[in-house]
Amino acid sequence: MPDAHYDDPRLAALYDLGNGWSADSDYYLALAGETPCRILDIGCGTGIITHAYAGRGHTVTGADPSQGMLAVARAKPHAGTIRWVESDAQSLDLGETFDLIALTGHAFQTLATDADIAAAAATLKRHLAPEGRAVFESRNPAIDWPARWAYATPLETPDGPVMETREFLGHEDGCMRFDLRYAFADGQELVSRSVLRFASRETIEALFLEAGLTAERVDGDWDGSPFEAATSPEMIFHMRHV
């Protein structure tokens, strides 16, 4: 079952309710600085950070493989100033370079195989300006994520509450499988099944080095603290040309 968040309009419309502006958004917005620059947001989803970049006067391109997510993004302020592209990270080819490339919201973890990561790394290398920086995050596989991820919470919508429940299904070959279930007030239930890769820092850096990019630094959380292998929740990679 594919992840329905990427193709179901009703779930795409709910996405921002559980994934709004947060500390990671502040982190990525600060990366762009105040001087207008060229930014590529890969896996832009509903465009939360994409629109924030545009609001600061940056020249922004947002790319995502989901028509449903892009439809939500195109309905927000600043949409007319942003170029929207329907594409995944592996196959994107715009024929130009950018000062900052961002993959936010743990979009990187949808790259489920080494081949997927290698293809995405080649995309970033191809689109990164000579002095540019590509930044993305992946959750630290040393953390017990299944223990943190089982929950049920109501989402308040104009049509009534929607109960969102996450159920962990399994962990194998470095990937975790889980269901997000949505019970709507009208009685409909929709299920979004996700598979996320929890690659090691060493694997990620090796695959990017093969593509010609190296990690200038790796932060461990949204406060900018250095990555600690045993305790940091995040691995936030800042990639530059070798």
Model description:
With 242 residues, the protein is an alpha/beta fold. The protein folds into two domains: 4-140 and 199-241, Rossmann fold (3-Layer(aba) Sandwich), CATH 3.40.50; 145-197, no CATH class. 27% of the residues lie in helices and 36% in strands. It has seven helices and eleven strands. α2 packs parallel to α3. It is globular, with a radius of gyration of 18 Å. The N and C termini lie far apart (39 Å).
Shape: globular
**Class from helix and strand fractions:** alpha/beta
Mean model confidence by pLDDT: 95
The CATH top-level class label of the largest domain: Alpha Beta
Helix-strand string: HHEHEHEEHEHEEEEHEE
Radius of gyration (CA) equals: 18 Å
Write the CATH fold name of the largest domain.
Answer: Rossmann fold
| Spans of at least 5 consecutive residues with low confidence | none
CATH superfamily of the largest domain: Vaccinia Virus protein VP39
CATH architecture assignment name of the largest domain: 3-Layer(aba) Sandwich
Determine the N-to-C terminus distance: 39 Å
Q: What amount of the residues lies in strands?
A: 35-45%
Count of distinct structural domains: 2
**Can you summarize the main beta sheet?**
7 strands, mixed
Q: What is the strand tally?
A: 11
User: Number of helical runs?
Assistant: 7
Q: What percent of residues adopt helix (DSSP H or I)? A: 25-40%
**Biggest sheet, spatial arrangement of strands:** 3-2-1-4-5-11-10
